[in-house]
Write a structure and sequence with these properties.
single chain; binds magnesium ion; alpha+beta; five-stranded mixed β-sheet; 568 residues; binds adenosine-5'-triphosphate; 28% strand
């Protein structure tokens, strides 16, 4: 590629809405252009990186036996209604109507469509297992689109879907995809970590996230340097909470027939009955750096937000800055941490203070019974969802083989064992050897293609700009001739090297724009091309070219004829 025939558009200053380094640098390097909130045009320089990312993913998916297809971006609402996700997804799901008033979803992911394909086209056990993938535009109406491509609304994702006869098969397919992901992220040249993720309702260890390690990452990762234990904070906390608490105390189920829930809870909490309550929720609210603990007493089925906004009359909402204050106010430690009247534990955004509360006697609820001695987080009917800081570095690793450390990461991939979550709702069955219909066992596997760009930069930059790993750089090598348009020797040597490198399959760009050296160097350092060769009259007189790697402090002289081999 000749720079004069390509589109290069660099900026000295990043726009003011760019908050993090990758967003700033991508804007300055002319890789993306903002069209609207979370919506970007991929400019030629950025698109080259995207294509390289896609190609690596495609090669490894194909190698792993996945088959590429391409599903529509606009999908009929009926399919989404079959799985209930039309309602469940809420405002993140972008919806449109056609001229006939029919509803459509703009895909945030494609489980429904692929399950529809498979239920109609796969009939027999002989056709399984099978794994389909596509690399396609996604749309999620994110609450807070930000950080450029990192959390866009329109973005590109590779999503793959496996279908198997049984759980064992699904686990095999999952392992194949997991290994393919390791190969992909290794090829990107990025430092990454695969961590166990909480699988929510599906349970088991059936989900892993792949994170690019970066201090600016939104997620906290917990790992043990001495063993291979690694989990995201959510999953690690669930384990930690499950391991704490009054495990030694037996779970006791107290019959409370006819007794009002509020009465029993009041008893547990040692509260006067005139403060009767229908349910109690203990939650921690994190606003910025501030952490507050709320002990909420609800008289009806009100949401936490309603309560916090204090719009519900006749309820007691108490705000506590610390655990000690709760003890102070009630003369007892809070004994109840699950919402009464439902079987669901409250979603708690926890802090270390709350982890300590797992050491208290807790209750969980069932019609006409109360349990005490429940180990909070372990024995509740669904895993408690928690976030951050119940695990701190130095804690023992759950596998007993070391201690825990914490680092930050950016979620770039996610693999899931889905089981029959979709095949059940959509009746995706195959006929087994006995001609009996069986539900297919599914897995799904996503990679955030465009997010990879942001993540790669967050991990690899300096004060001059981006430092792309060679495998995904927009160009691998840039040739910077000193006086290409005025010095014949320089031009001839540059053209020769350019031809030789192209012939050798090197992705090279020749900067023939006639810019001053300072401008040229600054542009390519900002854009982040990993290898630079300077062709100048002075060096050529000694038969030398100047090579400088993007991370090198100084240039190295290389013999003219040896440069192609040197760069390989
Ligand atoms: P997050 O936790 O960041 O919101 P997610 O868990 O909702 O991501 P998944 O549903 O697991 O995302 O989708 C698979 C992958 O798609 C993610 O691992 C991520 O790399 C990418 N992705 C998700 N949302 C976005 C987004 N808004 N912009 C860019 N990439 C995204
Ligand atoms: Mg999300
Ligand atoms: Mg996530
Ligand atoms: Mg995810």
């Amino acid at each position: 590629m000749r720079a004069s025939r390509f589109f290069i558009s660099t900026l000295k200053e990043a726009p003011s809405d760019a908050e993090i380094v990758s967003h700033k640098l991508m804007m300055r390097a002319g890789m993306i252009k903002r069209l609207g909130s979370g919506i970007y045009t991929y400019m030629p320089m950025g698109l080259r990186v995207i294509r390289k990312v896609e190609n690596i993913i495609r090669e490894e998916m194909n190698r792993a036996g996945a088959i590429e297809l391409l599903m529509p971006v606009v999908q009929p609402a009926e399919l989404w209604q079959e799985t209930n996700r039309w309602d469940k997804m809420g405002p993140e799901l972008m919806r449109v109507k056609d001229r006939h008033g029919r509803d459509y979803a703009i895909q945030p992911t494609s489980e429904e469509v692929i399950t529809d394909v498979v239920r109609s086209d796969i009939k027999s056990y002989r056709q399984l297992p099978i794994n389909f993938y596509h690399i396609q535009t996604k749309f999620r109406d994110e609450r807070r689109p930000r950080f450029g491509l990192m959390r866009g609304r329109e973005f590109t994702m590779k999503d793959a879907y496996s279908f198997d006869r049984d759980v064992e098969g699904m686990q095999k397919s999952y392992k194949i995809m997991y290994d393919a992901y390791v190969a992909i992220f290794n090829r990107f040249g990025l430092q990454f970590r695969a961590v166990a993720a909480d699988n929510g309702a599906i349970g088991g260890s059936g989900s892993h996230e792949f994170h690019v390690i970066a201090d600016t990452g939104e997620d906290a990762l917990v790992y043990s340097p001495e063993s291979d234990y690694a989990a995201n904070m959510e999953a690690a906390e669930a384990v930690a909470l499950g391991n704490r608490g009054p495990a030694a105390e037996p779970l006791t189920k107290t019959p409370t027939p006819g007794k009002a829930k509020c009465e029993h809870v009041a008893e547990l909490l040692n509260l006067p009955l005139e403060r009767t309550i229908k349910s109690i929720v203990l939650a921690v609210d994190k606003e910025g750096a501030e952490t507050e603990i709320w002990l909420l007493m609800l008289r009806g089925d009100h949401s936490l937000n309603e309560v916090k906004a204090a719009k519900i009359p006749g309820l007691g909402a108490f705000r506590f800055a610390s655990e000690a204050e709760i003890v102070d106010a009630f003369g007892t430690k809070p004994g109840y941490l699950g919402p009464v009247g439902t079987k669901k534990p409250v979603k708690v955004v926890a802090d270390r203070t709350v982890a300590n509360m797992a050491d208290f006697v807790c209750g969980a609820n069932e019609e006409d019974f109360h349990y005490t001695g429940v180990n909070w987080g372990r024995d509740l009917p669904e895993p408690l969802v928690v976030d951050l800081r119940n695990v701190v570095s130095g804690d023992p690793s759950p596998d007993g083989r070391g201690t825990l450390a914490i680092q930050r990461g950016i979620e770039v991939g996610h693999v899931f064992q889905l089981g029959t979550r979709y095949s059940e709702d959509m009746k995706a069955t195959y006929l087994d050897e006995n001609g009996k219909p069986q539900l297919m066992q599914m897995g799904c596997y996503g990679i955030g293609v465009t997010r990879i760009l942001g993540a790669a930069i967050e991990q690899n930059f300096d004060d001059k700009g981006i430092i792309w790993p060679a495998a995904i750089a927009p160009f691998e090598v840039v040739l910077c001739p000193m006086g290409y348009d005025r010095n014949e020797t320089v031009k001839a040597e540059t053209d020769k090297l350019y031809g030789d490198l192209q012939a050798a399959g090197v992705d090279v760009i020749l900067d023939d724009r006639g810019e001053r050296p300072g401008v040229m160097f600054a542009d390519w350092e900002l854009i982040g091309v990993p290898h630079r060769v300077v062709i100048g009259d002075r060096g050529l007189k000694e038969g030398k070219l100047e090579y400088q790697g993007r991370r090198d402090a100084a240039a190295t002289a290389v013999n003219v004829g040896e440069m192609p081999a040197f760069l390989k």
